[in-house]
Design brief:
alpha/beta; 2 domains; 7-stranded mixed sheet; 28% helix; 24% strand; globular
């Protein structure tokens, strides 16, 4: 990157640069010696949180880093409903994106749920997006985090975010000025006395506009990648464990699946999934590394079709068994809208079954599967499963409808509904157009 002086923030008449000059007292140097508590965190993998003041573009940076680091497990720890699909939708249909964006609240239940997910998750890399205000109540939520990125459009807020992270035993690996009107990214030089922290700027972070190829995104992704590669605590811990042979690491074992330019699995992968699974004949299969709901449904149902009796979906360090949920004439309005008739395809009625679970306002736990029932749909219907619930829930919903439905699809706003299972295999991977 070209060297250039960053914009500076004026506060009470004083100009405050983003970084110290070479002559100032250096920041604390990264130490090879870790505290025992920190070593325990590192054993569970590198977990990087993106924090900073509101309106700095954190969600855009978060989803750009997910694309730059495809092996990362993403966790939105902010109740704003901005999933990867919504970022894509902003570029295609901003009005529709606003319709589907649902802001939640930072409830105690939400914080405890995020804390458990972060602490329990075990893997090489997790990326976490948190909200734009510092609240002491949020500290337990990020207890399991190892590293932080500070992204700030207002540079006067950087020091308080740094203090928040460092007081919670989290190392800051990048401080980035979000310069919306800037023309290009800038990287500032580091003195030999300063810790190995990236400092620079990123320009024009805007929802719906791709940023994965920005110089700052690529540089920060490289730094995070090296943290993962050099995390000896995790690698040694993994060697000591006996890995369950039932685990399927989807991104590794099914690297031949059709993908788009961003590495996302395409709907045309569905028939390939069924073909590959039919060759393997596994009695037990635990799925790891799937992000998309229709892809989860396709894998789970393909495994069931092949005779697997123990199918589970990985979620934050554990594996949730896929259960065949029963249908009922009565349904719990906390979890379901009434099934909606959507039309017909080749004489078969299409019904939308919408689950109302939400990541912050209507949390759902795996234990709910023991008593959850599905809204009844007509025999032979094509069922579209929609809603913001987790993938392990979508898999159990799909499993429950297999005996009634003629086809099952997963809905994604802006794309339509991808058929993940069908009695007629020619339907696999087909798109039912429209926004349900």
């Amino acid at each position: 990157m070209e060297r250039e002086v960053l914009d500076i923030h004026e506060e009470s008449g004083a100009k405050t640069p983003l970084v110290r000059s070479r002559g100032e007292t250096s920041l604390e140097v990264f130490s090879a010696e870790r505290s025992e508590a920190y070593q325990e965190k590192l054993k569970r993998g590198i977990k990087v949180v993106i924090g900073g003041p509101s309106r700095s573009g954190k969600s855009v940076l978060f989803h750009s880093l997910i694309r730059a680091l495809p092996s990362a497990y993403p966790l939105p720890a902010s109740p704003d409903g901005e999933g990867d699909w919504l970022q894509r939708l902003y570029s295609e249909d901003p009005a529709l994106a606003q319709k589907y964006r649902k802001k939640g609240e930072y409830t105690q239940e939400f914080r405890e749920d995020c804390q458990k997910k972060i602490e329990d998750w075990d893997g090489p890399l997790m990326l976490i997006d948190m909200g734009g205000r510092i609240n002491p109540d949020d500290a337990p939520m990020i207890k399991g985090v190892t590293h932080a990125i500070i992204l700030a459009s207002d540079l006067s807020k950087v020091s308080e975010w740094r203090e928040f992270f460092e007081n919670n035993n989290i190392e800051v690996v990048a401080t980035i000025h979000s310069h919306y009107d800037g023309a290009r990214d800038i990287q500032l030089p580091k003195s030999s006395e300063e810790k190995a922290e990236f400092k620079g700027s990123i320009h024009h972070l805007e929802r719906g506009e791709p940023a994965v190829n920005r110089e700052t995104v690529q540089e920060v992704a490289s730094i995070i990648g090296k943290l993962v590669d050099n995390n000896s605590y995790y690698h040694e811990y993994e060697r000591e464990k006996t890995e369950d042979p039932a685990i399927i690491h989807v991104t590794e074992e099914f690297s031949n699946l059709p993908k788009d330019e961003h590495g996302r699995t395409l709907p045309t992968a569905v028939p390939v999934i069924y073909e590959e699974i039919s060759r393997q004949k596994r009695a037990s299969a635990w799925l790891e590394g799937i992000r998309c709901s229709w892809e989860t449904m396709a894998f789970a149902l393909a495994l069931e079709d092949s005779g697997a009796e123990d199918v589970r979906v990985g979620a934050y360090g554990s594996y949730i068994p896929v259960k065949k949920l029963p249908e009922s004439e009565q349904f719990d309005e906390r979890w379901w809208d009434e099934p909606k008739y959507y039309g017909e395809i080749e004489g078969k009625p299409v019904y939308v079954v919408h689950n109302k679970a939400h990541q912050s306002t209507n949390l759902i736990a795996p234990s709910v599967l023991d008593t959850l029932t599905l809204p009844k749909v007509p025999e032979g219907a094509i069922v579209i499963i929609s809603g913001g619930g987790p993938n392990w829930l979508k898999a159990s919903i799909a499993s429950g409808y297999r005996e009634t439905a003629s086809a099952i699809a997963g809905f994604q706003p802006g794309i339509g509904s991808t058929i993940a299972w069908s009695e007629e295999k020619d339907y696999l991977g087909k798109i039912i157009p429209g926004n349900v």
